[in-house]
Amino acid sequence: MESETIRYNAKEGVVVITLNRPDALNALSEEMRDSLKEALLKAANDETVRVVILTGEGRAFCAGADLKRFKTDYEHFERTGEPSRFYDASLPRVLAFYPKPILAAVNGPAVGVGMTMSLACDIRLGSESASFSCPFTRIGLTPEFGSAYFLPRLVGHSKAAEWVLTSRMIKAPEALSTGLISEIRPDVDLLDETRKIALAIAAMPEAAILSAKKLLRQAMDLSLSETLEEETRVFQNCQKEHSHYVAVTRVMEQIRGK
Fold first, then answer.
1. Which of 97, 101, 180, 253 has the fewest CB atoms within 10 Å distance of its CB?
2. pLDDT value, residue 104
């Protein structure tokens, strides 16, 4: 794919998708939105891709949407009565229901949609300079990109409400302590460390990885009884996979060799 706003780099079963508007702190434009969706779908449909990493170029992950666009959209609404078409659920749906593991390497400020798009990723790592903010109420808006669903489940309702209603900035240590991110790494090491995790995941039996990711996401909406039923079904299906047999044999050989 060709895009000035998105870089797509595939290597060893891992695709790194980089938001590439560093002069604008990777603020989400319409072109970037559409190109990001295209890149994600390309990776999802590529059988050689096992894991995806999402990160930003330069000193920010994503500084949110362009405020000028919000202002222009409202002025257009005042003149014509037509609502804005900048935001819809198409890109959030792609991320929320993404079939393959996706990791966010948050390399700096993740503001607005920068924060909320990271919430839909399976694993979030932050650099020492990473920071997060849901500044929606500050500009008279409400949570988006599935954040009203994901954020309370990640950090609890009270903390999610505090962050959303105050629009305050969350630094990396607080993000780590609340479970918003799983690790903090030095800025210069973040992408390499995220790639190590991605490669470790990519080396696992693919059927198990895809099924486990789907199961974890489904269980967020299931009762305990329903989860037990679904776990049993998925577990038994994985037992039928030849990759399961190969993996068990390999682990037994490793144990014997110790």
1. 253
2. 98
At 87 the three-state DSSP class reads coil
Q: Kindly state the tokens that stand for 88.
A: 């819809």
Cα angle 116, 121, 122 (rounded to 5 degrees) comes to 140
Domains of the chain: 6-202 (3.90.226.10), 206-257 (1.10.12)
Amino acid at 24: A
What Å distances lie between residue 175 and 95, 115, 155, 178, CA to CA? Answer: 21, 11, 9, 5
Instruction: Let me know if 78 is exposed, middle or buried by CB neighbors in 10 A (0-12, 13-18, 19+).
Output: exposed
The pTM (predicted TM-score) of the whole model is 0.92
pLDDT in tens, 176-235: 999 999 999 999 999 999 999 999 999 999 999 999 999 999 999 999 999 999 999 999
Residue-wise pLDDT tens digits, 7-47: 999 999 999 999 999 999 999 988 999 999 999 999 999 99
Residues counted in the chain: 258
* CA-CA-CA-CA dihedral for 140, 146, 147, 151, to nearest 10: 160
Write out the two tokens for 57.
Answer: 């170029």
By C-alpha distance, which of 156, 107, 159, 116 is closest to 134?
A: 116
Alpha carbon distance 227, 235 (integer Å): 12
**What is the maximal distance between C-alpha atoms in the chain?**
75
CA–CA gap between residue 52 and residue 217 (Å, rounded):
17
State both tokens at 196.
Answer: 């190590």
